[in-house]
Amino acid sequence: MKAAVLRQVRTPLEIEDVQISKPGPHEVLIRTVAAGVCHSDLHFYEGSYPHPLPAVIGHESAGVVEQVGSEVRTVKPGDHVITCLSAFCGHCEHCLTGHMSLCVSSETRRDKSDEPRLAQAPGGMNQFLNLSSFAEQMLIHEHACVAIRKDMPLDRAALIGCSVTTGVGAVVQTSNVRAGETVAVIGCGGVGLAAINGAAIAGAGRIIALAMVPHKLELAKAFGATDVIDAGAGDPVKQVMDLTGGVHHSFEAIGLKATTEQAFRMLRRGGTCNVIGMIPVGTMIELHGADFLGEKRIQGSLMGSNRFPVDMPRLVDFYMNGKLKLDDLISRRIKLNQINEAFAELKTGALARSVIMFDA
C-alpha cells in the first residue's frame, strides 16, 4: 500500500510502499477513505513530542472495514467506521470506572515478539498512535474504531476521530459545562472551533473566542461564539475580564505556555481552566498561588475524556441533525501526495483543516 512516511523530524514525508499484515484475533483491517491533517501530527513531525522513526503518521481518520479477526465482535466487513487513537482494553481500572481514554494497556498493541502490523524491507516501520492514518489501509485493534451510520459523509466523519471528539468532549465531559455558564476558548483551529461548537450545544450563556487570525474569528461566530476577541489587540485576559468579570470555564486549544497562563488568569472564582493543546515536552507553566484560594482549578483533557464507542455515533447524529458544524471545518480536500503542502499550511495557522481523500 501507499503511505506517507516520516523518516526524520522536520523533513518532508515520502510517499512509499509499505507492507501491512493480516488481522490478528482482535484486529480490524480498514480501507482508509479520509484522514484529517491535525496539528498534533505537526508536533510529532517537528519533534516537540518524540516518536520512534521511521513511522507512518496520521491519526484522524474514517474508512470502511475490509477484514476482521476471528474474535472481533464490534464491527464487520463493509461497516463504515471512525478510528480513535485512545484504544482501550475494556477491563483495566480506567476502563471499568468509565475513563476509557486514559487506558494504557498494552493489549491493544502487538507484542514485540509478534510480526509487526507495518513493515518495509529493508528495515522496520513504526505504527503511529496505534493507527497510522496517512496510508491506504490501517490495521488496528477493534477497540480503536467504532461503526457509524452509512449516510454520514466519511470526510466529515474523519474529523470526529480527533479534533471534534477532543474539543466537544473537553467541554461537555472534562469540564462539564452547564447551561448558562460562561466559556472562553483560546485558539480557533479545529479543536478550538469544536470546543466552541460544544459549548453552544451545551447551552453556554456566553462563548468568547480568542484568536489572532481574523478569518478564524469569523469562523468562530459560525460555530457559536457570542463574542470574539483579537488576542493581538491588547491584553486578552483584561478583555475577557471586562466582558464577564471572569469565565466559569476556559479552554486552551493551542499548546503554549503564555496562552495556558492566560486561560487560568481569565477565570472567575471557582472557575476551571482546561488545557487541550499539546504543550511541548519540558515546558513549565507559572501560576500565581493566591489564585487557588479562590478555588480556581487547572486540569488537562485527553481526547475529550471520551467514551468514543458511545460518543462518536452521537456526534454523527448531531452533525446529521444540524447541531454539529463540520462542513466549515474542512478548508480543503487533498491527495496523499500533497501531505507536505498541508503541513506547511498548518504552520501558518490560516486553515482550519485539510483532509486527505484516498478515493479522489
Global structural class:
alpha/beta
Major β-sheet profile: 7 strands, mixed
Portion in strands: 25-35%
**Cα distance spanning the termini:** 16 Å
Radius of gyration from the alpha-carbon trace, in angstroms:
20 Å
Overall outline: globular
What would the average pLDDT be, to the nearest integer? 95
In short:
This protein folds into two domains: 2-148 and 330-357, Quinone Oxidoreductase, Chain A, domain 1 (Alpha-Beta Complex); 168-301, Rossmann fold, CATH 3.40.50.720. Helix content is 27%, strand content 25%. It contains nine helices and 19 strands.
Walk me through what this model shows:
By secondary structure, this protein is α/β, with parallel strands linked by helices. It starts with a strand and ends with a strand. The model has no long low-confidence stretch (mean pLDDT 95). α3 packs across α4 and α3 crosses α8. It has two domains: 175 residues, Quinone Oxidoreductase, Chain A, domain 1, CATH 3.90.180.10; 134 residues, 3-Layer(aba) Sandwich (Rossmann fold). The strands form four sheets. Strands 4, 6, 7, 10, 11, 18 and 19 form a seven-stranded mixed beta sheet that branches. Strands 14-13-12-15-16-17 form a six-stranded parallel beta sheet, sandwiched between helices. A four-stranded mixed beta sheet has the order 2-1-5-9, with no helix packed on it. Helix content is 27%, strand content 25%. The chain contains nine helices and 19 strands.
